[in-house]
Design a protein that fits this description.
Blueprint: E1 8-11, E2 18-23, E3 32-37, H1 44-54, H2 57-60, H3 65-71, H4 75-80, E4 84-88, E5 92-94, E6 102-103, H5 104-114, H6 123-132, H7 134-177, H8 182-189, H9 208-223
Antiparallel strand pairs: 1-2, 1-5, 2-3, 3-4, 5-6
Helix pairs in contact: 6-7
Length: about 220
């Protein structure tokens, strides 16, 4: 029996484009999924690494593969290489193995039912809603757009956390090499410049000549 891969999928268009589903539903935009087009990855080594990662026990235990990428600190790398793309959930067919082909919508509805949640509306139902109640449709679009921004913000924070982890790792390495650089490390952690700014104090010597000139003038007046 072939190993199952709960994150494997292909496009519904019949071309059989291989996909790995990172997010079954993009936060704030439940009718779109975040996927990785395997054959569009620019580096062979990345494809091989993805193949090994996605079939691991840890990845298969995740509801969404993006959580595993986060744990492996690869989110930033995948973003930088533009490996993520979003698709309508109705264009994605899950292919977990053994010849199974299950529309992603069915998978989501099954998970929702298991968790006591409602079924996803069909595209036709959403179109009918737009025609019957344009105001409600506009409100829905606003919420979905706000949700997309929230998702982008969360991704940015995840990337920031990954970069911060790398900073902490480098600081730890530096302190192990030379503990005397601790003050510099503390300044980095506090977001301060590496070196303290040089303070320039203005001299007050210019004030003295005034008194000297004043006395000189007074003496000259008496003499005259």
């Amino acid at each position: 029996m072939a190993n199952l891969n709960v994150h494997a999928a292909e496009t519904k268009d019949g071309l059989g484009t291989r996909l790995i589903v990172a997010y079954k539903q993009i936060p704030g935009n439940p009718l779109r999924a975040l996927v990785i087009k395997v054959d569009s990855m620019t580096r062979d080594v990345d494809r091989d690494e993805l193949r090994n990662m996605v079939t691991s026990r840890e990845a298969q235990a995740e509801r969404d593969f993006i959580n595993h990428l986060h744990n492996k600190k690869l989110l930033n790398y995948y973003h930088e290489n533009r490996y993520f793309t979003d698709m309508s959930i109705d264009d994605v067919v899950m292919t977990p193995g053994n010849g199974q082909k299950i529309p992603l919508r069915e998978v989501i509805n099954s998970l929702n039912a298991r968790n006591g949640l409602g079924q996803l509306p069909t595209q036709e139902e959403m179109n009918n809603l737009s025609q019957k109640d344009p105001a409600a449709s506009m409100k829905r679009d606003e919420l979905m757009q706000a949700g997309s921004k929230t998702a982008m913000a969360k991704n940015a924070l995840i990337q920031a956390k990954l970069m911060q982890d790398e900073v902490n790792k480098k600081i730890k390495q530096a302190l192990e090499l030379d503990p005397t650089v601790r003050p510099i490390a503390d300044r980095i952690l506090q977001g301060l410049p590496l070196e303290e700014p040089i303070k320039v104090e203005l001299s007050s010597e210019k004030k003295a000549p005034k008194k000297t000139r004043a006395k000189s003038t007074k003496t000259k007046a008496i003499a005259s």
